[in-house]
Amino acid sequence: MIKISQLNIRFGDFKAVDGLSLDIPQGELFGFLGPNGAGKTTTIRALNGALTPTSGSIEVLGYAMPKELQKVKPFIGYVPDTENHYEDMTGHENLALYARLYGVPFSEIDRWLSVLQLSEAAHVKVRTYSKGMKKKLLIARELLHAPKLVFFDEPTANLDAHSIQLVRRLMQDLAAQGTTVFLTTHDMEEVEQICDRVAIIAKGKLLDCDTPTAFITRHAERFCDVQYDRDGVMVRHSYHLDDPAQRAALAHIIQTEHCLRVHSREFKFEDVFKKLTGEAYQ
Ligand SMILES: Nc1ncnc2c1ncn2[C@@H]1O[C@H](COP(=O)(O)OP(=O)(O)OP(=O)(O)O)[C@@H](O)[C@H]1O
Q: How far is the CA of 203 from the centre of ligand 1 (A)?
C-alpha cells in the first residue's frame, strides 16, 4: 500500500528526512509520530506527491510518487491540520463542489454529513461553523470519494470529547473496512487507543516502528514508589524494578519499615515516546 525506501529530503544543507524506510499494508491504522520539526509533514507532503524527494523511492498503491501522482490522486484523501473551506458557502455546497469533481453521487454528501453529525448545519454558511465543525466538514470532504488511503494530520486537535470519540471511531471503522489510515498526532493516548502500528521519527530519522503494546513492552521502565514512616518523618523513595540491587533494597524496605504506600508506576505509551525522543522518564 505504502512503501518508502531510503527516503531523503533536503532543504539546502538541512536534512528534513534522513534515510526513512517504511512498509504500510492495506487496512492498517498507522500512527506517524515525532516531536515538532521531526519531518512528519515533509514526509506526508512527499507521500502526497506535493514534494519531490532528494533521493529514495515512494510507492503508493503500487504507483511511483511523484511520477504517477495523477493516477493515484483519486484514491487518496488528505485531511490537513488547517481548514481551507469556501467560507461563504454552506457545508453542503462545499461538499457538492468536491462531489462534482470526483463524480460522486449527491446522496454521499448527505451520508457523510450525517456520519460526521453535521446534518443540521448542512445548509448554514461555513463562516458560522465552530472550529470543530469545520474540522469535521474537512474530514467529510476527504472521505466523500471513498479513498483507499487517507492521511489525517492532527484530526482530533481542537475537538470536544464527544467529537474526538466520533473521529477516532471513524478512523477505526475505515481501517476495519480496508482503508489505510495514516495518522499524525501529538495525542499519545489516541495512539495507544487506536493505532495498529506506530513509527516514531526524530530529526528525520526513524527511531522505531511497532505496535503500541510492543513499544511499551520493549521500552518500559518499571518503577515502584514507596512511602514509609521512619521515626515520625515521612520518607519517599522510588525503586527501579529492572535493577536487581534496587529490587533487593525495595524488598528490604517492605520487610523492615512501616510502609504506608507501595505503588507501581504505570508506564504508558507517552513515556515510551518521551524516552525515545529524548525526554527522560524520571
Ligand atoms: N520548505 C522548507 N524549507 C526549509 N525548511 C523546511 C521546509 N519545510 C520544512 N522545513 C524544515 O524541516 C523540518 C521538518 O519540518 P516538518 O514540518 O516536516 O516537521 P513536523 O514533524 O511536521 O513538525 P510539527 O509537529 O511541528 O508539525 C523543520 O526543521 C522545518 O523547519
A: 10
- Cβ-contact 224, 264 below 8 angstroms: yes
**One-letter amino acid identity for 117?**
Q
How far is residue 263 from each of residues 15, 150, 231, 237, 243, measured CA to CA in Å?
A: 44, 42, 22, 11, 17
221 alpha carbon, distance to own chain's centre: 23
Q: At CA 214, angle to CA 150 and CA 239, rounded to 5? A: 135
- Give the residue whose CA is nearest to atom 10 of ligand 1: 16
- Three-state DSSP state, 216: helix
Q: At what angle do helices 161-176 and 131-143 cross, to 10 degrees?
A: 10
Say what the ipTM of the complex is.
0.96
Over residues 144-174, the pLDDT tens digits come to: 999 999 999 999 998 999 999 999 999 999 9
How far does the chain reach from its first CA to its final CA, in angstroms? 39
200 vs 214: CA distance, rounded Å: 13
* Concatenated DSSP letters of 123-164: TSBGGGS-HHHHHHHHHHHHHTT--SEEEEESTTTT--HHHH
Which ligand 1 atom is the nearest neighbour of the CA of 35?
25
Nearest residue (CA) to ligand 1, atom 6: 11
Q: Note the pTM of the prediction, 2 decimals.
A: 0.88
CA distance 282 to 275: 10
Separation CA 5–CA 201 (nearest Å): 15
Q: How far is the CA of 42 from the centre of ligand 1 (A)?
A: 6
